[in-house]
Task: inverse folding
């Protein structure tokens, strides 16, 4: 038992140390600052549903889009050794596509919502495939390839709805964006859970994990072992496209409108950050999706903590930056190796002492 | 044989090749615009306007080019520019001194560069994350300084802002018959000075060549006896310094600032560098290319506007298309080269 | 006597986390000598060299250059003290010109005078007979020329100590000779050269003295005359070499045409000229020829590793199409690539994941091998091939070269191939593992697996192969078997002294 625990601690936690320590630190900090910070209460919302509320809920709920995107981003990072900086813009496009279909039907039924979502998925996957083709076929670095869509994506979103920022109001959309009647947990949280489960199933029933890591670490060797690395890279972008569609749909449903300028603004930076905080190398290769998910919640918890401390929303960025820097400095290879040396020194000292004792 | 060898022209290096392509495309595009769209494109002032509006972009792009040649990335440049603008405005409006305000601008830029450089080169943290945090920090500080737009209200500065180089013979006749001379702002002079200095640095100074070596192959650079850490550190400091200069130039151009100004400038700067032939993998690039990269980017926007595509989305969609074109072109050109070498 | 000592390293100690890489090693280099530093992989050669060049710090000991106690902090520091190194991998910048690569990092002035340097570089290149132009971008030169440029750089630095760390592995015979002449010239000028190589013949061709390391410890320093080749190998692997002669002469087997497993007619790829080839069930054959003769390119074409451009392929008499690696794998062909680091291992993945990789690809994307199954496979092959690893979850990149090679072998054996192509499986690995791999090849053949074996060491191929295909200038120039399988005949065919009847 103890052995197993040690193994988990050594092997499994290795990469997750930083995000878990970060989250524990934030939890501890908040508890000291305000013991009731994490209290969860049930309240009646506008629709007369009993729902859960509280800071913890708003953290988990608020991080939904980020968590979904971080999962897809992890895969792209692992396979291609670079990041997609166009996810925010692509999500705006997917959101616009979603709204476009909703708007085109006279009344919004469950069927139209599903159709609209599927359409958004197809559109987002197409743009994902565009990025993926540039990266996998033309061998362009992901950041540069996706810079194209980053530059013009939000304008395309604007163009889709003909220069308008239409609103959609429907109980179904409301249910997706906030609560399903009778369910006290925010729907976006359920969606994240669903996406995470799908990822787990995909990794279990396919060799996506092994192939992706192989391609990311050594593309040439992967090719000679019969792995189609072009396809794996393309696939990672298409999967990210699906995540983008989900995130876009959540984002639109939350507000009940599509604003191409502000929908999931700057989320690409947060998503990349989540991947990095999750202990994944931004240079590709080995990855843990769980790390990125925790990373997403770390970021959101940090934001909410700052809000709770009455930091104006415009200033949050500056504080966030400081925390990020602290996190990556602690996790930096140089500091790590210094720390390890220090530990080794203490250990050898202790050994010497115990050896002396034995004599 | 030997004689032949001496007089034979060497094939272009990757850097020269990509730069040449950019310059050719820019010239062709501009000539085409002059032929087909006429209007403003026939006046010299059109070029000067492009330069006047983009002097600060040119300066940050140069800084970014240095970092990118060294194999890094600095996405904080736009935010730092914005922070510099805001700080200088507030300082001047509180009765500051022009000279000190310049020092302030440079100081802020260098300070960011120092921190970025230290974290990236000495603590070996990924540059994207470091400069992302730098960008957040600078943007956050800007809003902390002032959420509302600010305008410079300072006599001495007004003189500086309005100082222009006037070239009457390059002017044009406006519709109402008035002669309008060509005007170049001081910022453009600063920008060109920066381009020239960095060009010399990158081509003829040891440090500059070290940037290329480091970007070409970091391990090799180390083995060749280059102090890679210090070289990388300096590249970020230079980028910071140029962001500082860019901020001041930006302020001289607009005379005002708000929390979101220079938003997206980092991506425009990256785009300029790429169009100008800098590779994000490092080791290849040139500031003259970057200058033309900025001009190409601006020209395409002007062309879009002049050809009557007035919907707000066309400008950035064409920019994206342009970027896509250049990125693909580079990839194809370099791939062909690699193939040719093999056979 | 004292005067001739150029460099002394005394009581050098170096510890890596968990491993003692060097313990109490001494090394002495005299003026004007070529000194071979020998040892198996993991013996500590490269660690010693990296300490001398300032890449690693040492944990104990002292370095004395010309009687002065020095400490070396960085490669630049080493250069300043007159210690230059040429590594196996090219450590130059492909994006700079040849001239810049020769002078960067050591100019005194802040200003770079391109014309001046180019003129000087051209002079040096001409003197050394290197076919490159100073103003050329280095990336446009061949690898061998790039290596020569690296040497030219070191030579021009008027170094006192020149370290050549496996410089010959990417050079062909002619270039090696050029390099040796260069080394002898430098020796006359009083430069001390440390020469690290895996090619024993080369040691006896140019070196004066040999220092042997084993497991991070000094075995001894010998004059070349005092240490015959067999003894050197014995010192390196630490056991007597009876095993080496254990291999009996290979019996000549008779194959009939029904047993042909693989047959290709005028097969060609983007890198290989058209050639005919066939292999029988249970046969071991070899491709030999100088580097660049097209031997690797040909086997890559068989496996579909490069773009196949023409030819017909039959497996067990049936026409098949092999255009990419996965096709070949589906037909029971495995390929162990020449460059282990680049084309073989997935360094950061565990031994287990590396072993199951090829089998997983063959099973398909939607049928992952379960964890317990994979663990069983890994344990089995770790035992069968005697892979030395801390556990099956150890990242393969942290294993020694020989064990990495065994992991890749395990990967292919796990797919139970009918035909295994081994391209330089023994390059850069220690003598003990080399023997193990050779034995394994013969055992596979007994079990009915066809094997194509490529090695730079002709002797090794003679021991294992029953048929040799000789290539020169990208064409098959001969096929040797039976009585013709001897060193002299192989050399003659490679060199093209007389036209062969065969082939």
Result:
């Amino acid at each position: 038992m103890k052995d197993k625990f040690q193994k988990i601690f050594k092997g499994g936690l290795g990469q997750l140390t930083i995000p878990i320590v970060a989250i524990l630190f934030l939890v501890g900090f908040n508890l000291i600052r305000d013991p009731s910070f994490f209290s969860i209460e049930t309240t009646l919302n506008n629709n007369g549903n009993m729902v859960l509320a509280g800071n913890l809920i708003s953290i988990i709920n608020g991080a939904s889009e980020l968590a979904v995107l971080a999962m897809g981003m992890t895969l792209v990072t692992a396979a291609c050794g670079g990041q997609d900086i166009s996810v925010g813009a692509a999500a705006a496009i997917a959101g616009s596509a979603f709204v476009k279909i909703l708007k085109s039907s006279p009344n919004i039924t469950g069927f139209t919502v599903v159709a609209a979502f599927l359409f958004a998925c197809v559109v987002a996957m197409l743009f994902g495939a565009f990025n993926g083709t540039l990266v996998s076929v033309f061998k362009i670095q992901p950041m540069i390839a996706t810079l194209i869509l980053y530059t013009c994506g939000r304008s395309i979103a604007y163009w889709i709805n003909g220069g308008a920022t239409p609103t959609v109001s429907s109980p179904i959309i409301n249910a997706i964006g906030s609560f399903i009647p009778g369910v006290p947990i925010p729907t976006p949280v359920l969606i994240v859970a669903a996406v995470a489960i799908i990822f787990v199933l995909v990794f279990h029933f396919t060799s996506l994990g092994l192939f992706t890591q192989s391609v990311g670490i050594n593309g040439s060797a992967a090719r000679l072992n019969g792995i189609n690395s072009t396809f794996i890279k393309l696939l990672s972008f298409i999967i990210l496209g699906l995540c983008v569609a989900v995130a876009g749909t959540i984002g639109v449903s939350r507000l009940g409108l599509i604003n191409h300028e502000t929908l999931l603004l700057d989320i690409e930076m947060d998503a990349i950050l989540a991947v990095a905080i999750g202990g994944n190398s931004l240079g590709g290769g080995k990855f843990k999706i769980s790390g990125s998910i925790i990373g997403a919640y770390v970021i959101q918890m940090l934001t909410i903590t700052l809000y709770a401390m009455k930091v104006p929303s415009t200033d949050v960025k500056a504080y966030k930056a400081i925390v990020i820097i602290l996190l990556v400095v602690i996790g930096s290879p140089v500091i790590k190796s210094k720390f390890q040396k220090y530990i080794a020194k203490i250990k050898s000292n202790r050994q010497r002492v115990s050896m002396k004792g034995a004599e | 044989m030997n004689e032949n060898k001496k007089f034979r022209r060497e094939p272009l290096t990757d850097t020269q090749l990509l730069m040449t392509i950019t310059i050719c495309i820019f010239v062709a595009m501009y000539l085409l615009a002059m032929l087909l769209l006429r209007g403003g494109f026939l006046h010299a002032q059109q070029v000067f306007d492009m330069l006047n509006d983009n002097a600060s972009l040119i300066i940050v792009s140069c800084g970014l080019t240095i970092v990118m040649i060294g194999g890094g990335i600095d996405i904080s440049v736009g935010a730092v520019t914005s922070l510099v603008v805001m700080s200088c405005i507030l300082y001047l409006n509180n009765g500051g001194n022009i000279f000190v305000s310049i020092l302030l601008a440079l100081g802020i830029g260098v300070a960011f560069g120092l921190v970025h450089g230290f974290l990236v080169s000495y603590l070996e943290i990924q540059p994207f994350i470091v400069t992302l945090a730098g960008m957040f920090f600078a943007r956050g500080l800007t809003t902390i300084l002032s959420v509302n737009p600010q305008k410079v209200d300072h006599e001495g500065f007004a003189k500086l802002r309005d100082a222009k180089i006037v070239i009457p013979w390059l002017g044009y006749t406006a519709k109402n018959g008035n002669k309008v001379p060509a005007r170049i702002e001081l910022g453009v002079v600063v920008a060109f000075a920066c381009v020239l200095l960095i060009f010399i640095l990158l081509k003829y100074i040891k440090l500059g060549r070290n940037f290329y070596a480091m970007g070409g192959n970091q391990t090799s650079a180390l083995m060749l006896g280059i102090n890679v850490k210090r070289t990388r550190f300096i590249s970020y400091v230079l980028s910071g310094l140029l962001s500082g200069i860019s901020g001041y130039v930006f302020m001289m151009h607009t005379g005002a600032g708000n929390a979101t100004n220079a938003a997206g400038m980092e991506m425009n700067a990256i785009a300029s560098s790429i169009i100008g032939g800098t590779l994000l993998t490092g080791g290849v690039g040139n500031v003259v290319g970057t200058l033309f990269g900025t001009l190409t980017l601006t020209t395409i926007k002007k062309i879009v506007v002049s050809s009557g595509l007035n919907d707000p989305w066309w400008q950035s969609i064409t920019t994206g298309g342009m970027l896509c074109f250049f990125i693909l072109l580079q990839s194809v050109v370099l791939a062909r080269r690699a193939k040719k070498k093999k056979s | 006597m004292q005067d001739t000592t150029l460099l002394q390293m005394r009581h050098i100690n170096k510890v890596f986390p968990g491993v003692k890489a060097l313990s109490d090693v001494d090394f002495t280099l005299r003026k004007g000598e070529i000194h071979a530093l020998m040892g198996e992989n993991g013996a500590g050669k490269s660690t010693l060299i990296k300490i001398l060049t300032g890449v690693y710090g040492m944990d104990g000991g002292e370095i004395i250059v010309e009687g002065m106690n020095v400490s070396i902090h960085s490669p630049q520091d080493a250069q300043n003290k007159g210690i230059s190194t040429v590594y196996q991998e090219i450590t130059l910048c492909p994006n700079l010109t040849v001239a810049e690569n020769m002078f960067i990092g050591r100019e005194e002035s802040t200003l770079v005078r391109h014309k001046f340097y180019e003129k000087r570089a051209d002079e040096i290149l001409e003197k050394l007979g290197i076919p490159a132009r100073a103003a050329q971008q280095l990336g446009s030169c061949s690898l061998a020329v790039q290596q020569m440029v690296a040497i030219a750089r070191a030579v021009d630095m008027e170094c006192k100590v020149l370290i050549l760390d496996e410089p010959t592995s990417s050079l062909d015979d002619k270039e090696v000779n050029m390099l040796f002449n260069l080394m002898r010239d430098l020796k006359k000028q009083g430069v001390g050269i440390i020469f690290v190589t895996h090619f024993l013949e080369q040691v006896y061709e140019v070196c004066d003295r040999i220092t042997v390391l084993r497991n991070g410890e000094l075995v001894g320093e010998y004059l070349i005359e005092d240490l015959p080749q067999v003894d050197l190998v014995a010192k390196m692997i630490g056991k007597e070499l009876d095993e080496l002669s254990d291999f009996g002469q290979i019996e000549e087997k008779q194959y009939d045409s029904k047993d042909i497993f693989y047959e290709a007619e005028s097969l060609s790829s983007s890198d290989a000229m058209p050639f005919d080839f066939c292999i029988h069930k249970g046969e071991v054959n070899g491709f030999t020829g100088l580097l660049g003769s097209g031997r690797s390119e040909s086997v890559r074409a068989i496996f579909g590793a490069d773009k196949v451009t023409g030819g017909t392929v039959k497996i067990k008499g049936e026409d098949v199409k092999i255009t990419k690696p996965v096709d070949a794998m589906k037909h029971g062909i495995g390929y162990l690539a020449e460059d282990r680091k680049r084309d073989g291992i997935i360094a950061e993945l565990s031994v287990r994941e590396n072993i199951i990789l090829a089998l997983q690809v063959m099973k398909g994307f939607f049928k992952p091998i379960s964890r317990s199954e994979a663990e069983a496979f890994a344990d089995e092959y770790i035992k069968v091939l005697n892979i030395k690893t801390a556990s099956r979850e150890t990242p393969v990149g942290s294993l020694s070269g020989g064990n990495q090679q065994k992991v890749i072998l395990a990967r292919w054996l796990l797919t139970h191939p009918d035909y295994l192509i081994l391209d330089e499986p023994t390059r850069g690995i220690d003598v003990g593992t080399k023997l193990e791999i050779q034995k394994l090849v013969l055992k596979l053949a007994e079990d009915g697996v066809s094997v194509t074996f490529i090695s730079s060491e002709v002797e090794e191929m003679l021991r294992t192969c029953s048929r040799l295909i000789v290539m020169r200038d990208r064409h098959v120039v001969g096929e040797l078997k039976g009585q013709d399988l001897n060193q002299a005949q192989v050399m003659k065919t490679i060199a093209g002294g007389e036209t062969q009847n065969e082939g």
